Each structure stands twice: as structure tokens, then as C-alpha cells.
Amino acid sequence: MQTSAQGTAVLEEEEGVVLKAYRDAKGVWTIGAGLTAASGVVTPKAGMVLRPDQATALLQQALRQNYEPAVQKAMGQPKQNEFDAGVLFHWNTGAIARATWVKLWKSSAAASAIRASMAEWDKSGGKVLPGLEKRRQREANILLMGVYGDTGNAEKIGNWVIKMTPGERSAAVEGFRKLGYEIGAIGQETDQIKRFQSDHDLTVDGLIGRATLSTLQRALDARAKAAPKATAAIATGVAASSTDLVHQLSGVPHADVAATVAAGAAALHQAWKYRDVIAAAVAPTMPRVAAFLRSV
Hints:
By secondary structure, the protein is mainly alpha-helical. It is 60% helix and 7% strand.
């Protein structure tokens, strides 16, 4: 059994089709409808670009190869809309084989119980995410009612090509402002978004889609997790020669030396984790360094 054209369209709408490779919020190279190297059909890397038809073909290949067989095995002989719902859920969670709602559905449990069970998959890192809440609601509607339309008050407005609620858009606008991109009223954000996209090596189109929002989240995460003391320790170590550094640390209590080294290691780890964010910061003055950081 295969995902219907309607189901594939919903998946592309939920994921957002990005034609130039970007790092997702966790730093994983991604392209198309959320395809990473783990998909087994493409290995996204810096600078990779797809045509729309290539993105859809890769999505369908990933579904055939990795997702549809697992959904078929877990659900048995579902109707088309039920199968589509299972595929949409599995694509997002990878949990079709252990999801309790599948067992409830197979036992013809009450629709309310199935919805409640599916709704439990609305968290990331232990935190309830509005986007996942809406996604589970939509999947439940497809599964139980055959209704593929969106739910809630999320919508596309102006340059915002990902469906978002007013609250989610406001949070994103505030995020851009924290980073120095003064977004105005809806419809007046194009220049600032283009500047953000250019600074972060994204497709410069002024459209606020999956890649732009993921990059925004990474930049905000990097800012929130910055460790000033650790960064200062790294700067001191880099500025000093190895001999000078040994001299500076001689006579210092072992616990303090260990703390300094640990802080430096932590800073290096964070710097490497968010190297794409650092690349955006140094690109104007060190373009070659930025290009290297973006390529690895």
C-alpha cells in the first residue's frame, strides 16, 4: 500500500519543502520535506539544491523504502485515509510500531480514546509544542474521519509560508528582533528577512519558511546557551602561547585548573555544535572561515 497524493501533499505542507540544504533546529543537514541522511535516499550537505520535482520524488522514495512498509506491518489492512494518517504520524515520530493508539484503533476502540492516545505524542524534550498538538489533531481527523484539511487557527499570511498561529508568529518576530532583525508589521518584513537569510546562507527570497525558522531557532538556542566564562577561558587560551598558558596555570590549585579546562572544553563543544551560527557572525570579516564552518 502506498501513500495517496492527498496524503503526500499534507506531508509536504506539514514539513515545508525546502529546496536548498539547511541545518534543522538540532543541527542536522536537511533538504526537501525534512529529508536527512537518515532517510537513506539523500545525503544533504552545504550548497545542495533540488528542483521541486526532485524533492517530491525523494520524499516518495523515502516513504516507499522506510515508512510505508512499517506502517503496513503495524496497521495490517487499513483504508487509504487510515494508512495516510499512519504514515504521517510515523514520518514525524518514527513510533508506529509502539504507539498505543494503533492498538486501540485495531481493537475498534472509541474514537475519543484513539484521539486521546494519539494526542499524547505532542511533546519534544518533555515540552508540549503547539505545532505537534495541531499535527496530531490533523492526523486523528484523517484517521477517523477521512478529513485532510488543517485544524485550528494556524494559517499562511503574507511571506509566512509555514502555517502558524498569531502567537507563534509573534514569538518568531520577537526572536528576529533579539538577533537584530527589526521585523515590522506583516507584509513589511521582506528586507529584514532577506538580510537574515543572506547572513545565514539560506535561499534569499524573503519567505519565512521551514529553513528560515529552523535557522532562527538555532541562532536563538546558541545565544541562550552561550557560556561567557567558558568563552573567556577559550579566548585566554587562544591568545596565549602554550608556554605562557602553562606559566599562567602553574601554582594554580588543581581544582581551579580542572575547572578552567572543563569550561574551555564546554565552550569548544558549544562552538562546534553551533558552528553555522558562528559562521554567520564571522562571514563579513572572515568569509573563508565562514565557508569552512558551513561545509563541515
